[in-house]
Amino acid sequence: MTVSLYLTSAEGRTGKSAVALGVLDALVADAPRVGVFRPLIRDRHERDRVLELLLTRATADVSYEQCIGVTYEEANDNPDEALVRIVAAFHALKQHCDAVLVVGSDFTDVAVPTELTFNARIAANLDSPVLLILGGRERDRAETLGQSAARSPKELAQLAELSLHELHAEHASLLAVVVNRSDPEALDEIVTQVRAEVSAEGLDEVHVWAIPEQLSLVSPTVQAVLDAVDGRFVRGSEDALAREVRSIVVAGMSMENVLPRLIESSVVIVAADRAETLLAVTMAHEADTFPDLAAVVLNGDFAVAADVERLIDGLGSTLPVISTPLGTFDTAQRITHARGLLTADTPERLDAAIGLFLEHVDVTVLRDRLSVHRGGIRTPVMFAYELFERAAEADAHIVLPEGEDDRILRAAHTLLARGTARLTILGDESAVRARGAELGLQLDEAAVVDPLTSALSAQFIAEYVRLRAHKGVTLEVAEERISDVSYFGTMMVHLGYADGMVSGAAHTTAHTIRPSLEIIKTVPGVSVVSSVFFMALADRVLVYGDCAVNPDPTAEQLADIAISSAETAAQFGVDPKIAMLSYSTGASGSGAEVDKVRRATQLVRASRPALAVEGPIQYDAASDPGVGESKLPGSTVAGHATVFIFPDLN
Question: Is this structure's pTM higher than 0.85?
Answer without folding.
Answer: no
